[in-house]
Amino acid sequence: MSNIATAEIPALAKPEAPARARRVSDRRGVGAVIEACKPGITRLVTVTSAVGFVMAALTRPWSIWEFAWLGAVTLVGTALSAAGANAINQWMERERDARMERTRGRPIPSGRIRPGTILWSGVGLSSVGVGLLFLAGPAPAVISLACVLSYVLWYTPLKTRTTLATFVGAIPGGLPPLIGSTAALGGGFGAVTAPVGLSLLAVMLIWQLPHFLAIAWMYREDYARGGYRVLPVIDSDGRWTSATMVLWAWALLPASLLPAVFLPDRLGIVYPLVAVGTGVVYAVLCARLAATRERAHAKQVFFASIAHLPILLTVMVGEGVVRSLV
Question: Is 0.85 surpassed by the pTM of this model?
């Protein structure tokens, strides 16, 4: 795919974009800030933190008030810190976003808001989120801060330099369950090593890799225009990309069984059966993509990934809650 990497780069956003932003910021500023916070990603991060909180909470007694208060603090803090990190990321990548078809409509490159507004909104949101998490304990707050810093100071700059950035990016995406689990287990740093949180961390770390590579495969020309060194951009025939996806899809199978291993009194036969069934389907779809290397099959892998994880987490929490009540 070397010829793709050298494709002509479209012009950046026009110079008058900041002026347009000044004219419309009062009317649409709040909506633009929300959009820059990437609500979909923020929601996923918050949900995985919630799963970590609930699964860890099932291992200890609670009062209703304590559960509700600590859960709310954990989820709101996680959501704000994630939203802030996403906004800072969009500020950092504003020029590259303007080169790519799928991102040039974002708030900054489209001229709907000033870059500085997004930057300071991101800094403020992430600061408030991390600060709020200190109410749940130092461990969830520090883990959240690690997510923000690794995302904006490590992962984002590396995306234009090395394909290994994908693995670095899995770190801030994988840590949110630990925010929730450490909060539910008292908030101290000793809770970081609790198996329930670490097992969910493993699931999230591995799930992201074939998921992101499927996206990068579908939009590799766009990533090339943006100057990103994702694996599908430099892997001309797709062999390394597809092999990597197959490897991690199969690795997800044993990883997804770890919560059942560490919580045998909360997860019985239902969750492992669902984990194996959906995991095998996911891995087979990745294997088919490796055989054909067609965009249509990459798209199917992507949709399978966004179905697989919610099913896995929903069944996990559902069975855990039901078994704790009976």
Answer: yes
Q: Read off the pLDDT of each residue in 43-64 and give the average, rounded to a whole number.
A: 95
Q: What is the mean pLDDT of the chain?
A: 90
pLDDT > 90? residue 8? no
- Cβ(242)–Cβ(293) below 8 Å: yes
Q: Where are the domains of the chain?
A: 2-325
Distances (CA, A) of 115 to 14, 158, 197, 286: 14, 21, 37, 39
Give the integer Cα–Cα distance in Å for 123 and 192: 26
CA distances, 118 to each of 11, 30, 31, 33, 207 (Å): 22, 10, 11, 6, 29
C-alpha distances in Å from residue 44, one per residue of 51, 131, 283:
11, 21, 22
Q: Could you read off the pLDDT of 273-321 as tens digits, one per residue?
A: 999 999 999 999 999 999 999 999 999 999 999 999 999 999 999 999 9
Question: What pLDDT is stored for residue 28 in this prediction?
Answer: 62
Q: Which CATH number fits domain 2-325: 1.10.600, 3.100.10, 2.20.25, 1.25.40?
A: 1.10.600
Could you tell me the two tokens for 295?
């965009």
Q: Give the angle 50-131-317 at the CA atoms, nearest 5°.
A: 5
Q: How far apart are CA 184 and CA 141, in angstroms?
A: 13
**Residue ranges in the chain assigned as alpha helix (H):** 2-5, 17-36, 39-57, 64-92, 94-99, 115-133, 138-149, 156-158, 165-174, 176-184, 195-218, 220-226, 231-234, 239-262, 270-292, 295-325
